[in-house]
Amino acid sequence: MNSVNSTFKFKWGNHMFKKLVVAAVATSFTLTASVSYAGPKAEVLHWWTSGGEAKSVAVLQKEFSENGGSWTDMPVAGGGGDAAMTALRARVLSGNAPAAVQLKGPSIQEWYEEGALADISAVAKKNNWSKVLPASIAGHMKCEGKWCAAPVNVHRIDWIWANASVLSSNGFGMPKTWDEFNATARALQAKGIIPLAHGGQAWQDATVFEAVALGIGGANFFHDAFVKLDKKALQSDTMVKVFDQMRIMRGFVDKNFSGRDWNLATAMVMNGEAAFQIMGDWAKGEFLAAGKVPGKDFLCASTPGEGFLYNVDSFAMFKVKGSERQDGQKLLAKLIVGKNFQKVFNLNKGSIPARTDVSLNEFDHCAHVSAADMNASSVGGTLLPSYAHGMALRGAQAGAITDTVTAHFNSKMSSKDAVAMLVKAIDNSK
Ligand code: GAL
Question: 134-179: per-residue pLDDT in tens?
Fold first, then answer.
C-alpha cells in the first residue's frame, strides 16, 4: 500500500516532475507533428489511361499539387473501368483502400452500404454543392442523405462519331434514322471502307447496344427495360428488334474487332480506315488530343432517336486513417467541383461540366449540342442513366444484361433466343 502511495505521490505529487512530463510530451507532439505532417496527400485510383483521358486527369493532378497536395497515381488501364473495379475490391479486401477512387452510379451507394466510404458533406456544404449542381446529379452523389462522392462531368453515351471526309467524299451526311445508318454503312462497305469501328470488349458491345435500344425503343421502353427491369419490356417485340439491329451492326465491324481497345477504334475513324464509331464523348477527347477539329476532321451527332443517355464520372473517398490522407481527400473533393477544374478538365475530356454555372463559351459545337439536348431531355422526361456505364443498375443486373449482349454479338444466336437469355439472366441476378 505504502509503496503504491509513495509511487503515486512521487509521480503526480511532485510538481516539478509533472511539469517536466507535460513539457516532454508537448515537445514530442510538436516534433512529431512538424516532422511527419507532409501536407495533404492522396492515392488516386482511376482508369483514365488513353491519350485524351490522361491529358484530362493530369489537370486534376496539377491543381492538386499546386494546392500543396502530393498525388500518388494508381491508373488501372481498361476502358469502362472493369479492371479498375477488380483492383479496387482487392485493395479494400486487403484493408488498404486508395484514398480517392473513380466510382459512379449505384456502385457508390453499394460501397457506402459496405461501410467503406467517407462522408464528405462538410466539403460539400462549405462549397455550396447543392446550389451549383443539378438535383439529378446531386442525387447520385448522396448516400443516406450524406454527400459521398464528387462529380467531375457529364458524358453522353448516345453519340455517333464520323470521319468528315470519308462521309463527304462519298456523298453522305450523318444518319438520322437507323435505316439511313444501315444504308450508308452498306454503301461504304461496298467501297471497302469499314463502316463501324468497334472494339469487341463486353462494355463496348453494351455501349452500342444501349444506344440502339434507346433509338429503336424510345425513352419509355429504355426506362422500363434498363432502369425498372420490367419483364414486359425485357421480353417485348421491341427488344427482339433491338437485337435484330445488333445483328446488322455485327456485319459492319471488321474481322479484327475482337478485344480491340476503344481508343484504337477511335483512331480508325481518325485515319479514315473506318467511317463511324458509336461511343461516349470521351471519344471526342481522343480526337482533340490528336489535334483533330470537330466539324472539319470529325463529326458528331446523337444516335438516331430521342433522349439522352448520361454518364457522370465521380470520385468517392474511401475511409482512410491519418490527417494527411484525410486532408488530401478534402482538398481533392473541393478541387473536383471547383469552377476552373470543371472547365479545363471537361474541355479535354470531351464531356460537359457537372456544375451548371460554368460558361460553355470555350467549348465546341458537340459540347453545345450535348448541353442543349441534356436540358431538353430533362424537361421532356427523356434524360436517362446509362446502364452500360453503371449509372442505372447495380453491378449484378448490369452484368447480366451485358453478358447476354456480348453472347449474342459474338455468336449466331437469334434475337428471340437472346431475349429469352436476357430475361433468364435478369431473373437469376435478382
Ligand atoms: C467510362 C468513363 C469515361 C471514359 C470511358 C472509357 O465508363 O465514364 O470517363 O473514361 O469509360 O474509359
Answer: 999 999 999 999 999 999 999 999 999 999 999 999 999 999 999 9
Answer whether residue 378 is part of any domain: no
Q: Is residue 373 in some structural domain?
A: no
**Residues with Cβ within 6 A of ligand 1?**
47-48, 53, 79-81, 155, 282, 311, 313, 389
Q: How many helices (H) and strands (E) does the chain have?
A: 20, 15
Residue 79: strand, helix, or coil:
helix
Q: Are residues 237 and 271 in the same domain?
A: yes
Half-sphere exposure of 372 (CA within 13 A, CB side): 9
Q: Whose CA is nearest to atom 6 of ligand 1?
A: 79
Residue 166 and residue 172: Cα distance in Å, rounded? 8
Q: Give per-residue pLDDT as tens, 28-87.
A: 444 444 568 999 999 999 999 999 999 999 999 999 999 999 999 999 999 999 999 999
- Is there a contact between 246 and 208 (Cβ–Cβ < 8 Å)? yes
C-alpha cell belonging to residue 300: 458528331
Of ligand 1's listed atoms, the one at least distance from the Cα of 153 is: 9
Helices (H), 258-354: 262-270, 282-289, 323-336, 339-349
- In a shared domain, residues 242 and 388: yes
Distance (Å) from CA 301 to ligand 1 centroid: 19
Q: Which atom of ligand 1 is nearest to the CA of 349?
A: 9
Any idea how long the chain is? 430
Query: What's 184's domain CATH number?
Result: 3.40.190.10
Query: Three-class SS of residue 200?
Result: strand
Neighbours of 22 (CB within 10 A): 10
Strands 153-156 and 308-311, by their bridges, are antiparallel
168 and 62 in a common domain: no
